[in-house]
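Possible regression after last week's pipeline update?

I re-ran a chain I had predicted before the update to compare outputs. Posting the input and the new output here so someone can diff against the archived version. Not blocking, just want to make sure nothing changed silently.
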Amino acid sequence: MSNATRNEGQLVCDVVGLEPLVDEITNRTESSASEPTETTGLGPFYRANAPIMRMGDSIVHGIPHGDHTFMHGRVIDFQTGTPIEGAELDLWHTAPNGLYEQQDPNQVDFNLRGRFFTGKDGEYALYCLRPTAYPIPDDGPAGKLLKLLDRHPMRPGHIHFILRAPGYKSITTQLFDRNCRYVTDDAAFATKQDLLVDFVPLEGDPQAGFELKYDFRMATLESKQRI
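New output (post-update):
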């Protein structure tokens, strides 16, 4: 079932909880008052080499409907709070119909995907959509397994991210809409408390009706891992 637009093996690992388990074991950090942003699974629909965009650009193309969102924040060193200039945010999410662009012939290539780089104060800003819940593909082994286990296929609304910066450990993560009904019952077991976010109504911006503010916290390559 795997092909150029879908990784069924990754999907099976998600629904049986294998990828979340490996992530938890691999990326646990030493306890402290301030910790790096939590990691979670990559998912089966990542595409490398998304377009590089300018600060304040939108990753939304040809979708006038949906909850357009202004997302902004900073990328900082989790121990010192120092802003990280030139950090890369690689992000992607589904359209309101629950499909990633490579699943949907009606979406333009690399729609709802983009790469952004932080400014001198670690800041980033972009436009995206408030993500919607959607069912994972159920026509392959992953879907059959869910049916055998009498489990639903729904994932809560989320946005995928990979963060990269010289001298820092990369972060693969997802941010979840706190108000989505599936955040406590994710078919992929990926939700974590630190990754629940609020989409706040926004006034005065002709491009967006919602605002999402989130600061990502990165760990240096020298940061110790907990056994």
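Follow-up from reviewer: compared with the archived run. The longest helix spans residues 18-27. Marking as no regression found.
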